[in-house]
Each structure stands twice: as structure tokens, then as C-alpha cells.
Amino acid sequence: MSDVLARPDLARLHDDADWWRQAAVYQIYPRSFADADGDGIGDLRGIRARVPYLQDLGIDAVWMSPFYPSALADGGYDVDDYRDIDPRLGTLAEFDDLVAALHEAGIRVIIDIVPNHTSDRHEWFREALASPRGSAARARYVFRDGLGPDGSLPPADWTSAFGGPAWEPVGDGQWYLHYFATEQPDLNWDNREVRDDFLRTLRFWSDRGVDGFRIDVAHGLAKRLDDELPDQATLDALPRDGAHPLWDRDEVHEIYAEWRGVFDEYTPPRTAVAEAWVESHRRPRYASVEGLGQAFNFDLLEAPFDAAEFRRIVDANLALAAASGSSTTWVLSNHDVVRHATRYGLPEPSVPGEKHGGAWLLSGGTTPALDRERGLRRARAASLFVLALPGSAYLYQGEELGLPEVADIPAAQRQDPAYFRNPGVDIGRDGCRVPLPWESEGDSFGFGPAGAHLPQPAWFGEYAADGQSDDPTSTLSMYRRALALRHDLQGAEELEWVPTADADVVHFRRPDGWEVVANFGPRPVALPEGASVLVASGDLDDGVLPAETTAWLRR
């Protein structure tokens, strides 16, 4: 009998096909997690050294953001080689060692796949630039002839997601599409060679023990670009109903049906979760059993701290999960948004659709005023609420420390292309990617033996893991307690709402009788009589739930 099957905990990893349905998944941004070699950049050996911390935290899986060879034009989402490790982060042997250590700790491994685009240093794109128009090398990407007699004008006036034009000339009258950074040329997914190569990539990592994949820009692979391209205004006005030229086309699910065939070659089947920014009624198809299996629900990332809004979002997404046969997902922070401990301490945006915290970031963190204490109080309450819900909870590194956003990063030390392509409009995402504080003191607060690739503020030491580990009132202790209880209490993927007399209070009951009460309002409320408290996001007093506090109960 193999060592894996001889141990019941590891045998569960080998056999449980539904492990992901209600998993607590911890996102690691490798370059900012832990640095073992002292070059200021996090690496695989740094993650390996922190596996005991992850095990103590109580998570079920880690999701690692890209670790591939990259020029870091977009934080690693510009991939040079999909089947290798950036030498600054480690080696394939070190990756194998990390996967083995995580599995030994009972933790699954999910990795990022970036299929919409490669980097401009990828061997395919270098070959495309060296080849003539109409060549097989260029057919792997989205090339178009420029307008005007000499092709010196772009094929369309499209704007990239990071600002600036979305078409780049190559000097011979042709242009390539890059919906994101210039260094990220879009692939042509009508090309059979592209499809086959990604099937090879999925098998490559699955064979190395990877349990699942997070699919970047999952709604963007299939495109239909006619000879005459619409202008940007027309493109923006087109409905995203399955026939949009760029986004959420129905044909994308043919790609994922092929991927599902690969996933099902393994025991247990590999799983995937789609990053698909689509209309909610179109999300279930990405999460179907014939496709990727699960899709991110980002509704709480954009929601105010409000009882009615949280309840509406829970109802809507549980219904969507039922429609797909999947489980839903819950996310409060990730590597692309302002950390929720900061968002909840800022006023709600005054303009519909405005990025929450965007103006504050542009001001360098001075305007509007941040109520850091309230932000953390609300963040703890929201996190405890989310961890009690049926479905998967996706956590972002540092949120278990209550880590706030860093706003005052000097311009010379910023890295995000959104900052450089949108000066004065978008400050970028560097503030949520600042390396973690592991220790209360030191040059990089324990991140590594030297400095950190993004500057850490002096106050980071207040949030360090070593200062929280033995404090029963800390945010880290709350997460550990909640995740341990989640394993013990988790039952069927359902909940029952319990009526309340206060519109600011949300109360629900999970299978086996445990209950959750969340007070979103400004005043304390009475807890149900006869209830014992399992865990709470703040101090309780004589059966009273304080303002902006959540508690798990047993009666």
C-alpha cells in the first residue's frame, strides 16, 4: 500500500471528488508571501517554510497566483512559459517538494492558468514577430492589418483594460491585439494548436499533483473579429449575451468541455474555478459539471456593508449554484482589489460603479479619512459571516491578519501597469500586494532576510503574524477558530433564514442546528436566549451582540 493510502487523512485527499465544494481556499501571491533566498521576492521555498502556518490556519487548499517565467509586466500574468517556474521563484523540483509538503499537511493545490494571452517573450510570439503576415506563427495570435494605405493606423480605436490603445503595431502594417498590457498579446483560440498546447499544460501540472486550476479571464478566450471591426463606443454598447465579439461568447464553453475531458482523466477529477466577469444569469454555465465546475462570485467585493445587500447576494448566488449543480464561492479580497479591511473603513463611493477606495488610493491614503478601527471591525464581521455560508470561501493572503491596504507607495517603486498606463486615473493594485509581515520587527518584518520588492510601511509590524499567534482576541486567532469549527460543523450546502425584528440583523441556521447572527447596524442587539457562543468577531457582553459584529451560536 502506498504511503498516501496508508494514512486516512491523505487517503481523503486521494479519493474525495467533492473536496472543493465547501473548501476554504487560501490565495497565495507568491512574490509577496515569503522570501527564502533574500532577493526581496517571495519564492517557492518561502512558501514551503510556511506550510506549518497554513496547516495551523486550517485551510483546505491554497491557490497560487502565477509563478511562471515572466518579465512581470503584469505581476506574473504575462507568461513566458506555461510549463516551467520563474528561476527567481524556484525550480520544478522545488515545486514538486512544495506540493508534496502541502499534501502531507492535508492541503490541496490550485494554480493559476492564464489562457487569454501569453507574454511578448513567449517563444510563440517571438516566432510570430519574426514571421510574415499570413504565417502559421501569426495565426496563433490575433493579428490584423492596420488601416490606411500603409497600415499605419490601428484596426480599431479599442482601449485596453489597463488604459491606452489595445492594438500594437509590429512594423509591417500589421497590429496585434492585447486587451491587457502591451506585453500580453491575445491568443487566437480558434487555432487548434493553441487548444492542444493548453491541454498539454493542464496534463503537465495535473501529473505533478496539482488538484485544480483557477482560470484567468475565463470569459475572454473565444472571440469573433469580423473584417470590419466596431469602434469602441459600439463595442461597449453591445449586449454581452453570448454573441459579443470579445466577451462571454457561447463558443468558449466548447473549450472548457475539452478541458473537462482532461480533468476527468484523473482520480479524483481535477477541478477548476472560472474568473468570469459576466452577467449573473450566465455564470452557471462556467460552473457546470460539463465545464470548469465552479465560477467566482464577486458580488461581495462590490457590495456595501449592509444587511439587506448581503442577504440578497447570498440568496441570488445559492440559486445560481443550484442551477449549475455546482457550489457557490465567496470572496471579500483578492490580488486585484482594495483589501476589505480598508474598504469597510471608507465611505461608500458617491458615483455608481466607482471603484471602492479608488479615490482614497489616488490621494495617497489621505482623502477621504480612513476609519481603520471600524474597517477592521467590519472586516472581521464580514469574514465570519462568509466562513459560515455553504459553498467555498476564498481567502486572500494577509486577510487573516486584518491587513489593510497600503496607499502611500512612492511612484518610483510601483509595479502595476494600470498605474503607468492611467496616470492620475488608476493607482493600480500594488497596495494589496505588499509583502506580508510575519514578524513585528526587522527590515522586512520577517518576509525575508533582506528587503521586500514593494515597500512595507512602518505600521505593518502591528499586524505581524508573530504578534497575533498567541493572542486569543486577534484576527488570526478568530480565523483559526472559525476554520476549525467550519470543518467540524459543515453539513449540507443549505441554510435557513431566521426572521429578525431588526432590519440591520441577519440570522441564519445551518444543518445540524448551528446558527449565525450578524449585526450590520450601529446599535447592539440581544442574542437569542439560551444560545452558547462558538466564535464571535468581537467581544460580547451579557448576551448582547455589539454593532458590526458576527457570532456563531449553538442552542
From TrEMBL:
Keywords: Glycoprotein, Hydrolase. It comes from the Bacteria. The keyword rRNA processing does not apply. Residues 27-433 form the Glycosyl hydrolase family 13 catalytic domain. SUPFAM superfamilies: (Trans)glycosidases. Belongs to the glycosyl hydrolase 13 family. GO terms for biological process: oligosaccharide catabolic process. GO terms for molecular function: alpha-amylase activity. The keyword NADP does not apply. This is Glycoside hydrolase family 13 protein.
